[in-house]
Specification:
There is one protein chain. Helix 3 runs parallel beside helix 4. By secondary structure, the chain is α/β, with parallel strands linked by helices. The protein has a 5-stranded mixed β-sheet, sandwiched between helices. It starts with a helix and ends in an 8-residue tail after the last strand. Bound molecules: zinc ion. The site of zinc ion (ZN) has 6 residues, from helix 3.
Length: 201
């Protein structure tokens, strides 16, 4: 009897322990899952926000750099002997200036861009052409580079830009004839017009 009673007593307690353990286990699993999913969700949200912030910062940084390089191109244009119009250009690749140029006559010619009537001589090279041909004489490659130029390229320079592999053109003044820009757009070259190059915001 005593043996049986003990058994009778033990069995319900054992079951109770099992039931309690199961509830405890369920609660632990639920808590762990809840914590993991909550953290994953928060991390995902944070990473998206972080990516957005980083992208915005990158765009802002690039805009600042674009203005600085355009100011450098403008300073470089001061080297030009041309009276009617002074244009400067620089080529940047991987954060390095690999070439520069300004409009002027070919090497060995007199440094006079205009004839007696004040018209630009036909053999005057544009700033972009000078910068691109300067790369050709160096060990650098303009493939994938950015061209900064004080005035929007003409159609002849646009052809050279496309052929040299330059992927981005940033310019200050928009030339009245836009066929150069149209051609660049057609070739998939990114064109960026920045009017206010003094701003640092
Ligand atoms: Zn040109």
């Amino acid at each position: 009897m005593c043996y049986n009673t003990e058994l009778y007593k033990v069995t319900p307690n054992y079951l109770a322990v099992q039931i309690n353990f199961n509830i405890f286990t369920k609660r632990v699993i639920f808590t762990v899952c809840y914590t993991v999913f909550t953290k994953l969700f928060v991390t995902l949200r944070r990473s998206k926000i972080l990516t957005l912030i980083l992208n915005m910062e990158q765009i802002h940084k690039q805009a600042l750099l674009d203005r600085r390089y355009l100011r450098m191109a403008r300073i470089w244009s001061e080297n030009s002997y041309c009276v009617r119009r002074k244009v400067g250009a620089i080529i940047v690749k991987d954060g390095m200036i690999i070439s520069d140029g300004y409009n002027g006559t070919p090497s060995g010619f007199e440094n006079v861009c205009e004839d007696d009537d004040g018209h630009t001589k036909p053999y005057v090279l544009h700033a972009e052409a000078n910068a691109i041909t300067k790369v050709a004489r160096s060990n650098n490659s303009s493939d994938g580079a950015t061209l900064y130029v004080t005035a929007s390229p003409c159609v002849e320079c646009a052809k050279l830009i496309i052929q040299s592999g330059i992927r981005r053109v940033v310019f200050n003044e928009l030339y009245r004839i836009c066929d150069g820009i149209d051609l660049l757009n057609r070739a998939g070259v990114e064109c960026v017009h920045i009017e206010d190059i003094e701003s640092n915001i």
